[in-house]
Amino acid sequence: MADQKIYRASTTAPVNIAVIKYWGKRDPSLNLPTNSSLSVTLSQSDLRTHTTASCSSTFEGPDTLLLNNAPQSLSTARSLACLKSLRALRSELEDAESSLPKLSTYSLRLVSVNNFPTAAGLASSAAGFAALVRAIADLYELQQSPTELSLIARQGSGSACRSLLGGYVAWDHGIRDDGLDSHARLVAPKSHWPDMRALILVVSAAKKGVSSTTGMQTTVQTSSLFQTRTKEVVPKEMAEMEKAIKSKDFATFAKVTMRESNSFHATCLDTDPPIFYLNDVSRAAIKAVEEMNEKAGRTIAAYTFDAGPNAVIYYLEADEDAVLKTFLPILRQKEGWGKTDTKIDGPGPASPQVVEVLEEGVSRVILTSVGEGPISVPEHLIDDEGKTVDT
Ligand SMILES: Nc1ncnc2c1ncn2[C@@H]1O[C@H](COP(=O)(O)OP(=O)(O)OP(=O)(O)O)[C@@H](O)[C@H]1O
Ligand SMILES: C[C@@](O)(CCOP(=O)(O)OP(=O)(O)O)CC(=O)O
Fold first, then answer.
1. Gene3D superfamilies, per this entry (predicted)?
2. Beta bridge partners of 55
């Protein structure tokens, strides 16, 4: 009798927030970057994508993806590239071992849920494509390492390659035309520096104006600052950042993180037409962090911003009190403090203007920390009859 089994594998995957930003492609179709980048993988206890990949000879029609309960196209060049590479690896296994079920020939059904806003500058594409690749690789029982799989996730979304690993992760730009040397690399596992924390001030959970993909293309074409950033600034910052992480030197980590975010946003402003990702609320967050560092007499926190106004503030657990005493007094009423004692009092930011803008502009907070890479989970979003489970 023909194989009617429903094969399934599920994973969760993390978001990562870069401290050295990827911005610019040297090859847009393969998603090869103009510069290397480096990120901190964030804990899946707070932000995660949960994806189930399933296939069966009984599934009819094309591959499908249900994302947050809505059908999502898998016929984009990026998704097709990921699926093609994964199928090719499975097919190699099947050719080598004829008793294996021919999963590579079956239609795929994918169901995925992000526990945070999608396409709102919270790196959903990173967690999303990392989860998609990891779940299908598990379904196909591929033996490739996370670094090898990162080559595939990169084709879905550049930053996704860094979400295949936990801790502190670099993405080396590589020099080969085929991109085989453009993959994620572990700089240090979470266990090396586990006390890294991140406070995210969610400024806008709405879909952003200029997508990263479009924005970086325009920057490459029009910004003259971009050339210096790629050739001179980033290589130096990468070296300094790796050293800071290896020696757990937070002050240097923080200074490079802030300089890097500002260099990236300066390049956006130097783009024609200019791209504005930061807004008044972002600038108030920058001011609050600067005031806090000045008051502490050392650098205890670092801000960074991706392609949107949300602030990510990195700090060490030992300095949590100072960070909370700055932000809690004005953001106490907002959602997201979790188990934190929201009664903690403190002076808050010194400048009344900063207080007013943050109070009004921050919609919620996320308190999280450095975390692990994708985790295989037994909870499937597709049942053993191939039906989507209610989420
Ligand atoms: N769980 C998921 N599974 C598969 N694809 C996903 C998933 N989540 C997001 N995506 C893809 O990523 C796209 C959103 O990417 P986009 O870069 O616009 O936003 P973002 O990643 O949230 O923001 P940013 O990259 O600026 O941090 C979605 O439209 C979808 O195609
Ligand atoms: C500002 C960034 O977050 C840009 C991320 O860009 P994407 O990875 O979303 O771009 P595509 O490769 O076109 O999908 C910086 C970073 O994460 O390094």
1. 3.30.230.10, GHMP kinase, C-terminal domain
2. 7, 108
- Collapsing DSSP to helix, strand or coil, 254 comes out as helix
In degrees rounded to 5, what are phi and psi of residue 300?
A: -105, -10
Nearest-CA residue for atom 31 of ligand 1:
125
The model carries a pTM of 0.96
Residue nearest to atom 14 of ligand 2 (CA): 157
Among 15, 64, 124, the mutation site with the greatest number of ligand 1 atoms within 8 A of its Cβ is 124
Residue with tokens 């295949």: 164
Q: How far apart are CA 8 and CA 138, in angstroms?
A: 9
Find the 121 Cα to ligand 1 centroid distance in Å. 9
- Yes or no: say if 305 and 284 are a contact pair by the CB < 8 Å rule: no
Q: What is the pLDDT of residues 122-151, one digit of tens each?
A: 889 999 999 999 999 999 999 999 999 999
pLDDT digits (tens, 9 = 90+) for 276-331: 999 999 999 999 999 999 999 999 999 999 999 999 999 999 999 999 999 999 99
Tell me the C-alpha distance between 155 and 160, whole Å: 9
CB-count exposure of residue 291 (10 Å: 0-12, 13-18, 19+): middle
Atom index in ligand 2 nearest the CA of residue 213 equals 13
Q: What burial letters (b/e) apply to 55-64, b meaning 16+ CB within 10 Å?
A: bbbebeeebb
Q: Which of 11, 26, 306 is nearest to 149 (CA)?
A: 11
d(CA 206, ligand 1 centre) in Å:
13
The set of protein residues with a Cβ atom below 6 angstroms from ligand 2 is 18, 21-23, 31, 37, 125, 157-159, 212-213, 306-307
